[in-house]
Amino acid sequence: MTRVLSDADPELREPHPSGPIELAAPGPRRPRAPRRRRWSWRRLPLYAFLALAAIAFAYPLIWLVSASLKPRGEVFDNRLIPQTLTFDNYLQVWTQAPVAIWLLNTVIVTVLAASAVTLSSAMVAWGFAHFRFPFRGALFGLVLATMMLPAAVTMIPTFLIWNSLGLVGTLVPMWAHNLFGSAFYIFLIRQFLLALPRDWFDAARIDGASQWTVFWRIGLPLIRPALVVTFIFEVQAVWTDLMRSLIYLRGSSTFTLPRGLKSLVDAFGFGGEWHWETIVTASVIATVPIVVLFLIAQRHFVRGISGGGLR
Amino acid sequence: MAAAARMRRREAVAGLLFLSPWLIGFCVFTAWPLLYSGYLSLTQYDVINDARFVGLDNYAALAADPKVGVALGNTFLFTLMQVPLHVLVALGLALALERAGRATGFFRTVLLLPKLTPPVAVGVLFLLLFNGQSGLINAILGSLGIRGPAWTTDPAWVKPGLVLMSLLMVGASVVILLAALHGVPEELYESARVDGAGFWRRTFHVALPMISPALLFVTVVSTIGALQTFDEAYTAFFGAGVDDYGNDAALFYVIYLFRQAFEFLHMGYASALAWVLFAIILVITAVQLLVSRRVVHYEGATPR
């Protein structure tokens, strides 16, 4: 469940009057300021608990980075500070496996997938928010219903479609389905759009702008915050996606990082030659970019999770 | 009149044009696959030769397949352990975070980190940290005087280990519950305090009922996720070179489905497996929603 809420049940999105409606308005209402309390020793257990939790949650990643700086024999020694500090693994890993190509493939797929889904979902959300046409409500219900469908049910025929087009083994099936929008994002962007005053767009229409111009020139800039959330969410989902890469990628030169990393586990793991230093180093390379992106854009992540979860 | 009708038609056409990406995608990637997988589930199909209609044979075979029993048992057991713990841990952390004042943001960032880590890397970490001989978990247990089990090889401990590892992935649920907690009006706490309610009473009688819709949401989503668990277990226990079932203790339903479809090319059988999973998820979700009607409190909503 990489895409946190993608298989959420639309029924659950009851209006929640007391929930934060961060995405619902262009100037999001601030969540209630945390209650200010004076420091007191009585709060010590609370902070001790949180500190322990923070260590438990952060330590695996720290352990991973630390292990990648150790020579082969010491990967398992569980020391926080490596006894023998070495950057050799980071020099070697590129020759042990085509990690540079995997990185490049992942970047290509991620950028294409996230751009495609952002633009197409915005178009569809715009259609739902700004036009009246027959069966609009029913069609939107259908959008929400697709969120309920487990990926396993459509997985096989979808594979057969790409197979009959001769595209299995290429990067295309990794992202091209995103050209057609994605239910969760359509929902998210539509919510945001509905909170914008309609007159802003009608005024432009009266000035003679075409529908497309209004969408492109006025609509898109106004919904930028929702687009950023969509883009970043999808980057995370695609960057870490394993299942699709297992189904569609064949040769090592087409692998993305998760698929490549899996092939390293197969070749060098317990069933293979025990080069765990290579696996650990490649894991760090696969993880660091997404962690950095998160640290830069975490505001948007949090908005996407809480805004999408309760509205 | 005619002009108005024309305007309406033009508006409808423009709207449908904006919808066209989704309309095409829905037909090609949702509606057609749904129908086609229903048909495939009644056939024998290996991608190379033409599909052969076999009626309900796949479903009969599935009911008799001992591996399906194993996979279903594993998946249910994992879900039963994982979902309650997931919700409890997420709730505990959210309640603590709400009281953390200025430090909330920092802790929220840290708690979200494992959720963002690629699941393959999490699978790698599972193999290493939970390793029976040299893993960190058993080293810690050892220093407490407990001899830890062989988490990654002992069939009895594989699933508990995976559950523990999965609890690091509660970050998103914590964020959702925290947002709900921030939405509880301060006055409710104040009046409870005036009435002499302590922390636990305020939590159980004010906070939890108020955030029950969010709790339901987190429960349903994490159940659906647990029933489809794949990435970490597949990374750790299956893959190239494993031509038997590797470790039956980690054979989850979607892993079995995936192997049937894409490793053995039993597309018909795998489609039947997929439909059974779909039915299971629908039933479990429906039961959860029905039960929740008695428990979940919708502020201001008319009871349905």
Supply database-style keywords.
heterodimer, A: about 300 residues, mainly alpha, 2 domains, disordered N terminus, B: about 300 residues, MetI-like fold, two-stranded antiparallel ribbon, flat
What's this entry about, in short?
The complex is a heterodimer of chains A (311) and B (304). Chain A is an all-alpha fold and 311 residues long.
* Total beta strands of chain B: 2
**Rg of chain B from C-alpha positions?**
24 Å
Termini Cα gap of chain B = 42 Å
- Average residue-wise pLDDT of chain B: 91
Shape of chain A: globular
Largest interface: A-B, 115 and 113 residues
Kindly provide the name of the CATH class of the largest domain in chain A: Mainly Alpha
Q: What is the name of the CATH architecture of the largest domain in chain B?
A: Orthogonal Bundle
Give a description of the structure:
The complex is a heterodimer of chains A (about 300) and B (about 300). The radius of gyration of chain A is 23 Å and the shape is globular. In chain A, helix 2 packs across helix 12 and helix 3 runs antiparallel to helix 9. With about 300 residues, chain A is an all-alpha fold. Chain B is mainly alpha-helical and about 300 residues long. The mean pLDDT of chain B is about 90.
Topology of helices and strands:
The complex is a heterodimer of chains A (311) and B (304).
Chain A: H1 44-68, H2 88-96, H3 99-130, H4 136-146, H5 151-164, H6 183-194, H7 199-206, H8 211-222, H9 224-239, H10 243-248, H11 257-268, H12 276-310
Chain B: H1 2-40, E1 43-44, E2 52-53, H2 57-64, H3 66-98, H4 104-116, H5 119-129, H6 136-143, H7 155-166, H8 171-182, H9 186-194, H10 199-210, H11 212-227, H12 231-237, H13 253-263, H14 267-295
